[in-house]
Write a structure and sequence with these properties.
Belongs to the aldehyde dehydrogenase family. It comes from Leucobacter insecticola. This protein has helices spanning 4-11, 38-57, 60-76, 78-89, 98-114, 149-162, 176-186, 202-211, 224-234, 259-271, 291-302, 323-338, 371-374, 390-398, 413-420, 455-461; strands at 18-22, 29-34, 120-125, 128-136, 139-143, 166-170, 195-197, 217-221, 240-244, 249-253, 281-287, 342-345, 361-364, 381-387, 402-403, 405-409, 427-430, 445-446, 449-450, 463-469. It has 470 residues and is of the alpha/beta class. The strands form five sheets. Strands 12-13-14-11-10-16-17 form a seven-stranded mixed β-sheet, sandwiched between helices. A six-stranded mixed β-sheet has the order 7-6-5-8-9-19, sandwiched between helices. The protein has a three-stranded antiparallel β-sheet with strand order 3-4-20. Strand 13, helix 13 and strand 14 (381-387) form a beta-alpha-beta unit. Helix 1 packs across helix 7 (176-186) and helix 4 (78-89) runs antiparallel to helix 7 (176-186). The longest helix is centred in the N-terminal third of the chain and has 20 residues, at 38-57. The mean pLDDT is 97.
């Protein structure tokens, strides 16, 4: 499966229900994705449950070696996977997009394999002795989204497998082929039954996965409303949960910045993956003294970033993955226009054009309570709010019920850290936004979810703590 054509042929269903898959940039039919039902899910759970016993019985070193083999397999098919991802999700091959995402799959497979998790001695003195071990949970149900379908799937799969669990994955309904292709590549080297994928509707297959008494852990990345339904569905079985839910990340620009120096960082913080990123910068609060310069420099950078069909090498921004998301962005920008906000770039989509392209849009002088500010747009439209009082900017940044990420932009690190400590978010970045590292824990505050992924904390999250004392 080292070419796009051979990979697509290998994952094309030969029987059963399917749906047509269209490139969101061109409207071209690229293939057929399987659509499975609850019976197929139950069979996959049984298969995973049977395989888990022997997988957990392997040594930690043996499971780590398998993960490195899986990473090798992803590398060997990296260009085929990137093209499949670009054609189905829409993101370009270049820039922080499809090739970048596949590379991230490799890194986030190797890092959990290489992260040590030794037995922890908790107490060892005259009062007694106790140590903490981490045991497999069993079967992990993983539900991945459509924005970073391959990489977020790996964030769920790799740590779960490392800790001796088996996995049943349900991909998003609009990026099924990307996840099925990735898992097909990994399953070239993994033992039978360890990693399973069941594409199907969230209302049936996803719901049944979260309700199954045979699944000991659910990992979900997606919207807060769906996360709440998963909490309810899993409650009867007291299923462990890691939920990375919706965000509406705020950035605060302090008056001491160099507007030209931060323009590129602001752009990619907001517009990476054409704004379709949970922890992207989605509302920017800029001090009045530098407001006009920040807006001007950001617009000057943004207007030169090419958007177009993903497989054309020059592009680094693509379409929105699906028409429903396009319509959300369009509605929110129109709300901003109607309120009298100033559109300084974009905001003028061609609704009759082929593809889900919404132009890079920057909206200035907008009311902080406008829909484009308080609702997560999840697309290429950034509202920039003017402030003069820092306490008010912090209050506005914190007043929403979500808190995934945030950022502070300043030439004074001490001042930036002081402001960062006041923000309610799972992560606050200084002079950047949205950068992730496989060893740095990541997750949300408030209604952006709970649980942490990555690093040692991510391994512990897919294991059962077991204290041995005496």
């Amino acid at each position: 499966m080292n070419t796009y054509e051979s990979l697509l042929a290998a994952i094309t269903p030969t029987s059963g229900e399917t749906r047509d898959v269209f490139d969101p940039a061109t409207g071209e039919l690229i293939g057929k994705a399987p659509v499975q039902d609850v019976a197929a899910l139950e069979a996959a759970i049984d298969k995973a449950e049977a395989a888990q016993v022997s997988w957990a019985a392997l040594s930690d070193d043996e499971r780590r070696a398998y993960l490195h083999k899986a990473a090798d397999a992803i590398e060997a098919s990296s260009e085929a996977l990137a093209e499949l991802l670009s054609r189905e999700q829409g993101k370009p091959l270049n820039g922080p997009n499809a090739r970048f995402e596949v590379g991230g799959c490799v890194a986030w497979t190797r890092t959990p394999a290489d992260t040590p998790l030794p037995t922890e001695v908790i107490v060892d003195d005259e009062s007694g002795y106790a140590e903490m071990h981490y045991r497999p949970l069993g079967v992990v149900g993983a539900i991945s989204p459509w924005n970073w379908p391959m990489m977020i799937s790996i964030w769920q799969i790799a740590p779960a497998l490392r800790m001796g669990n088996t996995v049943v994955m349900k991909p998003a309904e609009t990026t099924t082929l990307s996840v099925v292709g990735l898992i097909a590549v990994m399953n070239q080297v993994l033992p039978e039954g360890v990693l399973n994928v069941v594409p199907g509707p969230g209302s049936t297959v996803g719901d049944a996965l979260t309700r199954s008494p045979k699944v000991q852990k659910i990992m979900f990345t997606g919207s807060t409303p769906v996360g709440k339904r998963i909490i309810e569905a899993s409650a009867n079985n007291v299923t462990r949960l890691t939920l990375e839910l919706g965000g509406n990340d705020a950035g605060i620009v302090l008056p001491d910045v160099d507007p030209a120096a931060i323009a590129e960082g602001l752009f990619w913080g907001a517009f990476i993956n054409t704004g379709q990123t949970c922890a992207a910068l989605k509302r920017l609060y800029v001090h009045d003294s530098v407001y006009d310069e920040v807006v001007e420099n950001l617009v000057n950078f943004a207007k030169n970033v090419p958007m177009g069909v993903g497989v054309e090498e020059e592009n680094v921004l693509g379409p929105l993955q699906n028409r429903a998301q396009y319509e959300i962005v369009d509605r929110l920008v129109e709300s901003a226009k109607a309120s009298g906000a100033r559109v300084v770039l974009g905001g003028n989509p061609d609704h009759d054009a082929v593809g889900n392209f919404y132009p890079t849009t920057i909206v200035a002088d907008i009311d902080p309570q406008n829909d484009l500010v308080v609702e997560e747009q999840f697309g290429p439209a950034l509202p920039i709010i003017r402030y003069s009082d820092l306490d008010e900017a912090v209050r506005l940044a914190n007043e929403l019920e979500v808190g995934l990420g945030s950022s502070v932009w300043s030439s004074d690190r001490a001042k930036a850290l002081e402001v960062a400590a006041r923000l309610q978010a799972g992560t606050t970045w200084i002079n950047s936004h949205g950068g992730l590292h496989p060893m740095i824990p990541f997750g949300g505050a408030k209604q952006s979810g709970y649980g942490r992924e990555f690093g040692v904390e991510g391994l512990k999250a897919v294991a059962e703590p077991h204290v041995i004392s005496g």
